[in-house]
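Job type: complex structure
Entries:
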Amino acid sequence: MKELIEKLVLELPVPDREQAELRARLLRAVKDGAEAVQRELEAASRALQTEFEAAMKKIEEATR
Amino acid sequence: MKYRIAEMTLDGFRGYRRATTVRLNKPLVILEGSNGSGKSSTANGPIFAIAGNDAARKDLGPVTIRERTKWQVKNRHAKDAAVRLTLADGAGARCIVARTGKTVTVDGKPGDPLAKLGVTMDTVVASIFNPQEAVRSIVVMEPRSRDALFTSLAGLDSVRRLEDALHVGQKSADALVESIARERRGIDDRIGAQVRIVQKQLQEREPKARNAGLSLDEAAVRQLANDVEAALRAFCESYGLERPTLPAGDLNEFVRAARAAIARLESANPLLQQQTALGGRLAELEGLLGDHERLAKQTADLAQQRVALQETNGLRGDVEAKRDRLHAEIEEADRQYAQAGSYHAMLGRALDYFQQLAGSRIACPLCRAQGVEIGHVREHLQSELHKAGLQPLQERLTDLRKEKLAAETVLWSFNELAQAEAAMSGRRAKLDERIIKAAGRSLAPTEDARRVLEALRDAAKAELAKVAGMLDERNKAIAAVRDRLEQAGLVSEILRLRELLERLDALPQSSEYAALKSVQSRAERLASLAAALVKGADAERRAGFDKAFSSNVMDVQANMARISARADLAGLTIDSTTWDVVVNGVPVTPTLNVGDVTAIALSLFCAMAKNAAHAAEFVILDDPSQNFDAGHKRGLAEVLADLARERQVIVTSTDSEFLDALKKAGTVQRQVVRFRPWDESRGIELEVGDAP
């Protein structure tokens, strides 16, 4: 199974540095199984959510 | 090495109350007994020994399996569940797998039985153990269930779980993308709305500034602020106030600070306090004058009442004397009335007597005339009674009493008047106290309180008018400052709105907005990446299935031909995109009955088991003949007997028709393990024997 996840992750396109970093994190998570890869994806979503909220806050400040 | 189960010892596991050893010495082992006798527990024993709690995972197999969702491996009488397997290969090599609770050993040392046998849980599900729930789940014919069933039977359960996990990750990324898109639309809408509001506000304010001749260039704005400051300084100097410090530079801040400073100055305006105090004094004096007037009128009314009472009735002493005289006269008249009353009563009794006499002549007791008629006596008595009548006396008494009552009424009026005069005197004293307090001095006996009050009121009025004048002047002065300030405020607001509009217009090109777009595009890339992972896992699973199925297709079709008599299913395959059963390129899923679907699943399982390359050379099927007719049961028995030529096959069943078929099928040697009916006090008990 580890090999399969590894294969899937390695086949991912890497358009930029961020994606490359994410792929590296996913590869590190591979050894802990599918749930770890899932958690990594969820963590990436949460990080972007936080970043998005911060960007929104700045925009809202700029419109006051 | 290829291992078969030579012996298993179960203790405390499920229904086993005491250590029980089952020796398996034939390639086909039939576990038979009534429901609840322990067949399935025995069939589960090797799986528990090999996989432990992993065998109890609820997601193991095609659908959630009831027996495994709350799988009780340990019974309540035992400290731990223990299963010991003795595995033997054809060359005489042995391997002991023993699990007690969470502790597992292989040949007496801690080890991994799955690794020893070269299997994974996927292969256990696909080619070693077919639990009765798996067969039952085949009844569910939804595409998702077929997908899960066939995936599981092809040994790809873990790929399915990976796909599920990745799908959860993908859903979270998709939700993020959706939420960002929504928020982004929201912020764009808000910016648009804000621009419209600002434009409207500017449209309202700019004409006002133009009409007031206000210029918005920097010098004019600075001059406006200077004007406000100068006006404020002049105002403070006029009224001896400390000049507030106003911030230089930003006009908005200057206007805000100036407004606050003016509000502070006005809230501490002493003239306003004076005006309030004088208003209060004037109201008090007007009140005192009103009270004084009312009291004077009421006093005059009382005096007039006294004069009228005395004119009509004389002085109080005269009336008292009259009352006393009348009292004496009434007493005398009462006495006379009592005397006359006694004589009158005697005459009455005599008349009653003579009224009863009749006929005879008698002497009149009054006039002494002899031989008179009784009627004469009666008339004489009635005349005497009239003469001695009480009426005049009674009338006199009545008159006297009336007169006395009138005198007492007059005296009561005198009392009432005296009380009213006393109360008036008290109120007068209190009013005098208030007047003295208002005047701030005692009044001379000759002074008229009314005049004093009027003088005080006029003085208060004059003072109030003076303060109002001063206040008006001050208001005009501050209004001048305010006018300049409002102009500055208007200019400052227009400048602020223009700046905001510029910022809003520039926002889509700003770095903040670029950051927002960047996060959005990164989230979209993350979602595509997660989707790619899910797609990859899905493709891998379908490819894995196709590979597994194609490697076993001949056996699947052969098994199917033996189990099911349907010629139209010969040459069946399974489409891994729709998970439909397909014959000659045509999906036949809708035409399948439950028995046929079960037959397809068991055909695939038996083929996978036959061709499996791992070291576990045994297969366990728990009650596989469910949903089968007699023909299907015979066919399955033949397939299993055939499989037993290559693998050790352990089958449980309560189905006598299927058990008969199993005992007769093929030529392979077989062993029957018979279980006694369940007994709570003894637990699972068995008999071991060989079939004929």
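Summary: Chain A has a mean pLDDT of 85. Residues 34-62 of chain A form the longest helix (29 residues).
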